[in-house]
Fold this protein.
Amino acid sequence: MDKNNIRMKCEKVNFYYGRKRALDDINLDIYKNSVTAIIGPSGCGKSTLIRLYNRMNDLIPRTRLEGKIFLDDKNIYDIGSDVVEIRRKVGMVFQKPNPFPKTIFENISYGLEVNGEKDKTFINDRVISSLKKAALWCEVKDRLHDSALQLSGGQQQRLCIARCLAVEPEVILFDEPCASLDPISTQKIEELILELKKTYTIIIVTHNMQQAARVSDFTAFLYIGKLVEFGTTEKLFTVPKEKLTEEYLTGKFG
Amino acid sequence: MKKLTEKLGFALLFLCMIISLFFLGSILYFIVSRGFSVISWEFLTQVPKKAMTAGGVAPAIVGTFYLTLGSILFALPLGLACAIYLCEYSPKSYVVNIIRMSINNLAGVPSVVFGLFGLAVFVKFFNFGVSMLSGALTLGIMILPNIISASQEALLAVPQSYREASLALGATHWQTIKKVVLPTAMPGILTGVILGIGRVAGETAPILFTAATFYTRGFPKSVFSEVMALPYHIYALMTEGTHPEKQTQIAYGCALILLALVLLISSVAIIIRQRQRKYYG
Amino acid sequence: MLAFASLLFLVGIMVVLFLNGLPIFKETGVFNFLFGRNWYPTYDPPEFGILPLALASLMVTFGALLVCVPLGVGSALYLNELAGPRQKAFLKPIIEIIAGVPSIVFGFFGMLIVAPMVQKIFNLPVGFTAFTGSIILGIMAVPTVCSISEDALSYVPKSFREASLALGANRWQTLIKVVIPAAGSGISTGIILGMSRAVGETMTVLMVTGGAAVMPKSFFIPVRPMTSTIAAEMGEAVVGSSHFHALFGIGLVLFVITLIFNIIAEMISRRFRVKLGLGR
């Protein structure tokens, strides 16, 4: 855990829905070109936490954040920081596949267009390379101009990943990306994540411990809004320091 | 006994349906059968002649067209902007709720009251006089609440996940609205607008004292001239003038044109809505 | 900007009605205006009591309810319960389309067909009566009541029906004891909106109720509801005169009445959504 390698970082983060505190004094480092998994029982604040990294919770009324979250050396919650720019750098794949009701091509070119890209050939190439990276190209290359809503759930989710890759983010957030998918699609997405970590920094929320063990380098265990334990996945799963972590991993609660 | 009440009850419901359809159908039949013989190419394209007893009703058709067009051009941008503001920009609060309720209320205000408003504000205060402009603005204000609430409903039906996906890709709020939210909501908004058009085309009370007149020489010349309009023309033919028999014939023709126009417009809206329902399940 | 402009217009309507209507309340007093029994706007001195007009509106609306509630709700029940899917897919849009027929067309029909029929059947001196108005308004409101009620019925969860049928109730009992109570507040919303439409309807009543501004003593005499009073007299009223303000005063009263109807409808429909767990 080299301190020079930190990409994102939470400092004393508290988060409130109205008066209810959902996150309690979280300090968490995210390392470059690694996969960090956030695990914990439902309602522990996993999704709330991951949505803070690209300021997605700004959309929910009556919420409040205390503390700082850094992307490299900049606090993304600083007054005057550009939320649109942050979201371009920190991409997100959601729990349920959410392609736009547009064609497959338009879904991917969308991110480029809104970021001001006008060059048609560039867009075209980027769409193709993103689809290839997301391992979807072979399945859709003949129907790029069909509606994205016709794809299967697993394909839709890979399309959402391709859409996210097209704008070349630096960090990618996965919020339970396999929650609504079948085992085969899940496997494909996990393989994809392992491939992507070579170039990107990845944070993934999952309720599936095996998935965390399979794909992640680091794991953070969250329980009722508190960060109970953080460490390399190998250590956390084999020799957890906290009793609570051990109980969760062995299925005593969940 | 149990069986008998069920049979009687269902028979009663069937009867209700039949009676309703009979009444509504007979109105349509009456207008169509009597109006059909009146309609001719001349009727559609000529100006009225011989003190409204002969000739056509072209100025009324054109007037209705202008009034409807004007009111939509006025109400659509305003209403859409208002709906976007209420759904996408303003924080969901108590105030927005009150605004939403008052808009719903205004949608139920009698059209004649809008006529009063138009008279006081456009005809008198802004001194547009009894004119096409006053009438179109009055009609526009009348359907403003309908357009706002239809658009609002359509915008609210756009899944939040579309907005999140777009924002997460680094799109700005406005890009998200323009490129994702509005296109998705468009069929719903369109339905509302088309139904609004149908309503405007058939309304009489709001233009009674803001725009309409019984007779003009030829077609309206500017936005400040009085206009003839189909619905008002029917009313006037039935209540004014000196040749009731012949005027009634013309009124049949007008009623048929108006009916065909309005039914056509609202069928389009309803077909769009049916399709939309199928699409989203 | 545009958004605020349209809000401004909407607030403006209330302001304009108040500004132009208030002078008459000052002149005659609120009580005398609302409960005065004589509407003689052009006499010298004029009298501005809107009780006969308000009663006429009330009568016509009530009569219309008697027509549109059984027919509208009955048709909705038929569509929801008895009509097959294909029949429903055909009839529902037709009824929605008919809901858009302009009121002037109904008025026209009433004037030429219904009024003479009423005159003949009841052997009256004139066919233009409160009764005629009620019938036409009632028929007019049927599509509105029917389509809103049908929506309410279709929101009733299938599980309610299945539970009742599984207990050995037949379809009629299920309909009366389970479905209608569950959809009850939704249906009442439809009825109230239909009523609101009847109260505010102008052209039809103007054409078929005869237009005599006298205290309505029976259903079979000519009457003059509030809306048609405005429509018929605004053309003659001198701007700024008491008569002018009195007509705005009527507009204000109509505004308040529809406001009350809408608030009731809103409250009921909110309760309906809560009851069926539809949220909001």
About this structure: Chain B touches chain C through 82 residues (CB under 8 Å). Residues 13 and 103 of chain B are 35 Å apart (CA to CA).
